[in-house]
UniProtKB/TrEMBL annotation:
Endpoints of the signal sequence: none
Family of this protein: Belongs to the SIMIBI class G3E GTPase family. ZNG1 subfamily.
Name of protein: COBW domain-containing protein 1
Name of the encoding gene: CBWD1
Catalytic activity: GTP + H2O = GDP + phosphate + H(+)
MF GO annotations: GTP binding; hydrolase activity
Native source species: Geospiza fortis
């Protein structure tokens, strides 16, 4: 690392039980810090033969299935060893992955053979992902858990402009204070957050990114067109998520008038 200018990319492989979010947070740095290293994206590999067993494994109360968490945090999923399973088995793996992370891109391969152009330059954590994210958000749907308290994807859309300070309050209540609960009183645990929003006073769409307690807002290169209906689309991945409650809290928070103090 002391030989500056010699590295085009750094691929960091974690252990099978690692939490990618904790590792990613070390590299997801503000551009203002002047770091030469930036987080491009999180890639997870799912074994087509044994992946379903790991993804559906039930854990003791309070613990998150490690495989499910890795899928939830991923920007790209590579389903490997597809030649070792039937189409029916492969489809079950696809369905399980999609039920956890409705936003992720999926590649299928054998013997881990993947074109590097599909793995590198994902730009999953910067404003360059704004255009591709806009297209993805239009097709993402809320998923349903295969197991109780399993990780799912929730998405919703709210029209209009919102104040940045109110958006920050909503995100901080959700990620930091963790005071948003479902109908049973369980705290909603958000693992990954993505979205495009319309902030008052900004002419371009703003991308929202969140991993565990860490989040960021960044203006994209995508400008709102004159006469275009401004809207806010969010996708949340996590446990005990209730779409209607989250949407209600979002609307109540972003539309609340706040003083200048």
């Amino acid at each position: 690392m002391q030989r500056r200018g010699k590295f085009d990319y750094i691929l960091l492989e974690t252990t099978g039980l690692a939490d990618p979010g904790a590792v990613a947070s070390m590299f997801w740095v503000d551009s203002e810090l002047g770091s030469d290293i930036y987080l491009d994206g999180i890639v997870s590999v799912v074994d087509a033969k044994h992946g379903l067993q790991h993804l559906t494994e039930e854990k003791p109360e309070g613990l998150i299935n490690e495989a499910s968490r890795q899928v939830a945090l991923a920007d790209l999923i590579i389903i490997n060893k597809t030649d070792l399973v039937s189409e029916e088995e492969l489809n079950k793996v696809r369905t399980s992955v999609r039920s956890i992370n409705g936003l992720v891109k999926i590649l299928e391969t054998q013997r881990s053979r993947v074109d590097l152009s599909n793995v590198l330059d994902l730009h999953a954590f910067d404003s360059l992902s704004g255009v591709s994210l806009q297209k993805k958000l239009e097709h993402v749907k809320t998923t349903h858990a295969h197991l109780d308290k399993a990780i799912i994807t929730v998405t919703f859309e709210v029209p209009g402009n919102i104040k940045e300070e109110n958006l920050n309050l909503f995100i901080q209540n959700l990620l930091w204070e963790k005071n948003v609960k479902d109908k049973t009183g369980c705290t909603m645990d958000v693992i990954r957050l993505k979205g495009l929003v319309s902030i008052q006073g900004k002419s371009h769409q703003v991308i929202v990114q969140g991993v565990h307690e860490l989040y960021d807002l960044e203006e994209t290169s995508v400008a709102w067109k004159e006469g275009e209906k401004r809207t806010n689309r969010l996708v949340l991945i996590g446990r005990s998520l209730d779409k209607e409650i989250i949407k209600e809290v979002f609307i109540a928070t972003v539309r609340e008038e706040r003083g200048n103090s």
